Amino acid sequence: MKVTREVLAPGVALTAIQTDKFKSASLSATFLTPLDRETASANALVPYVLRRGCETWPTMGEISVRLEELYGGALEPVARKRGETQCLGLMGSFLDDAYTLEGERVLEPAVELLTSLLLEPVTRDGVFLEAYVAGERENLIQAIRAQMNDKRAYAALRLTQEMCRGEAYGVDRLGSEEAAAALTPQSAWAAYQRLLSSAQVELHYCGSAPVQRVREALSPLAEGLKARRSGPTAALTCDARPHAGGESPREVADHLDVTQGKLSLGFRTGGADARGENYPALLVFSALYGGTATSKLFLNVREKLSLCYYASSSVEAVKGIMTVSSGVEFDKMKEAQDEILAQLEAVKAGDFTPEELTSAKQAVINSCQSTLDSRAGLEQYWLTAAITGSAETPEELIARLERVTAQEVAAVARGMELDAIYRLMGKEG
Amino acid sequence: MEERRYDKLGTRLFHGALDNGLHVFVDRRPGYGKQFAFFATRYGGMDMRFQTQAGWQDTPAGVAHFLEHKLFDTKDGNALQIMAANGSDPNAFTSFGITGYFFQCTQGFAENLRTLLGFVTEPYFTPESVAKEQGIIGQEIAMGDDEADTEVFYDLLNCLYAHHPVRTHIAGTQASIAQITPQTLYTCHGAFYNPANMVLTVVGNVDPEEVMDIAREVVTAPGTGDPARDYGGAEPREAVSHETSRAMAVSAPLFQFGFKLPDPGYGPERLRAQLIGDLAGDLLVGDSSPLYTRLYNAGLLTRSFGYGYEDYPGCAFFALGGESKDPRAVRDQVLAECARLGREGFAPEVFQRAKKAAYGGMVSQLNSFENTAVELAQSYFDGVDYLTFPEVFRSITAQDVAEFIRTWFVEAQAALAVITPGGGAA
To answer: Yes or no: is domain A250-425 CATH 3.30.830.10?
Structure first.
């Protein structure tokens, strides 16, 4: 596997991974822009409207036909967030040329489709088509409302909204329903122009083609992006808040018609994040505390005390936040919370065995190594690296993980400060 | 072991069998760092009534899933922890027809495989551990009761079927799992977890002979075969009822609309039936179909939409669903389009394109170790050689698919299940 990162034009970078491991190739283009309450919904709409039609393939039906001709390829609009960066783009997956029935090339026509969708949207009176904007605006509103359907994810979302109220991180990747409802062809077009003129663009390829062929195929896209840029690329910042905001954690509860409660706890990490020296220790800490089936939370809160169906921790390392999520009966919330915090105290005090440490390290290393075997994992890894400005390879990160000590894990644990508590309760509760 | 080469797919598959009837398949993948192993029994949520030497056994709903949880317990502790400590990522699932245990790792494969094969074949249950699990699974069931996606799917199955056990929640209910005792678990384990009713599939950069040797060393129980099961006799050909609706705490109506299909039986015809069902779905409501475009543009479907052909022992159905502001309108338009396609058939280029896309999709799915291992196991249980799908595709004609739609995608076979907003604050 050969990873190449190069700048194709100012603000436009390509990460190309050459490997013949996979039966299909990934191809994506992502705009990176600061997450902002004012623009988040408009930005989120852009990839979905672009995916509706371009000059060569003006309708979804025609795009679908084209994708089917390319052996059932996919090119999907995506709106994500990493830390306080909103990531908007089209992510593609296409059969690798090696497996086509007649030996046809798929990469070049796939890039052609991507280029046209990104740069040549169907317009009317100088802006997006009203019908496309109206349809995708409705879908965006529905997608925001539908976030409550998955109660586990919803509890995590509500926790970060409340905990990071005054920060960009408190803004959802899709923005808000109110902002979405106010979108027009003009405001969506303005967002598109802003992304073209100043957002950092990350192009990604992973497949059997050598980088020269990929670069050549992408050169019309890189040229097109270059021609549309004006001024400097918007810097990607992150409001690092290492400490909890108030004297005591903010507490919030919602009431819905559910039979099982959700308890989510949000922590500031005391400055440990993806950019820091202690990033490997942060990952190992989270695995040991609540990230695996040998973790403190799994063994004690779930298995030993049967308090929860699940209780796990996860880290958003770009921002520097840890969340603990659990599904728990309404009348056991207090008991579960006490136990979750007691287990954190244990890690802070260094009260864990060498076996627990080894197992946590193994789990993180295993997950890191598996990244190398997964196209989606590789795409996410290198996108995050582009945001944090890191050039570290998964192999190098693994080497750092191997060296993490018990002292470093306990030190990271001691930096954790509880900042918000979210409870999802029943209607009567 | 015998080696089978599937050159079009770039796959080398090794196959062998132990004397006790355990079949082993290894899909060797050089160049990868990870390995994936899947150990499965032909025993799922549907298998509640079955025959042992002692006669017919009636067991409560949810035993297969309960057993899946409890098998991780060993005399010395918990296999999950042992394997996690050894750097792997073990898990398990129970479907209607099978229960499977698996892990992925990047080191210590042999040791992890030994542990996997050991804990699945050596049951250890106590009254205390069963009681504790009733608490944990009770929570899982409570959580499932809030999952509208799952509920609407079961609602559809309850419309389509009169008595086939695919109607029953795999995890059971609070009341059904309360009846489970250690003896229930030992009885079911004894009947279904014998090597002749199981299969081991491995994907990754491993030595097939080493896998075979480890299986021979650990899985030493005698094979007693595939127990007879009772699924309640023949189902009526048609859907039992055609519509159901209820309210839950959701933001927009969710629906599943489905057609009851004939039991595809055992053997190669099953794969053919699956591919015809998949192609029918692609041509009817796939991304490039006129119907999908029409429904999407009318705001009747969102991107949450999905569809698929599913088959289990003794049954098969096709379902489509997602969110819609007007599920009945979707149903009516789908039925009208089915009638048109059944009448007019497909243009050759449309059909060829659909086949090309479906073929590319299935090849791409082989990227997933988990998907490949599960498909290999499932197809072994079904009497199918899964990796022959390129050849089976070639043999399917546009007439086959049009005939299938004309016969089965009709109102008499159909049912609509809807969950409406209104249960709770939205």
So the answer is: yes
Query: Structure pTM?
Result: 0.83
To the nearest 10 degrees (0 to 180), the angle between helices B269-285 and B327-344 is 110
| CA–CA dist B257, B245 (Å, integer) | 12
What's the pLDDT at A247? 84
**For testing contact with chain B, the best of A309, A330, A378 (most B CBs within 10 A):** A309
Q: Is A351 left (phi over 0), alpha (psi -120 to 50) or beta?
A: beta
CATH number at B243-421:
3.30.830.10
A359 chain-B contacts, CB cut-off 8 A: 81, 84-85, 87
Q: Does A395 touch chain B (CB under 8 A)?
A: no
| CATH 3.30.830.10 intervals, chain B | 2-218, 243-421
pLDDT digit string, tens, across residues B99-148: 999 999 888 999 999 999 999 999 999 999 999 899 888 888 888 888 89
Q: Does B182 touch chain A (CB under 8 A)?
A: no
Topology of the domain comprising A2-227: Cytochrome Bc1 Complex; Chain A, domain 1 (3.30.830)
* pLDDT over 70 at B217, yes or no: yes
Active-site residue, from B68, B310, B337, B375: B68
Q: Of the candidates A177, A154, A179, A157, which has an alpha carbon nearest to the alpha carbon of residue A169? A: A157
Task: State the CB neighbour count (10 A cutoff) for residue B225.
Answer: 11
Per the prediction, chain A carries an average pLDDT of 94
**Using the beta-carbon criterion (under 8 Å), do A146 and B252 form an inter-chain contact?**
yes
Q: Which helix or strand (DSSP H or E) is residue A32 part of?
A: strand A24-34
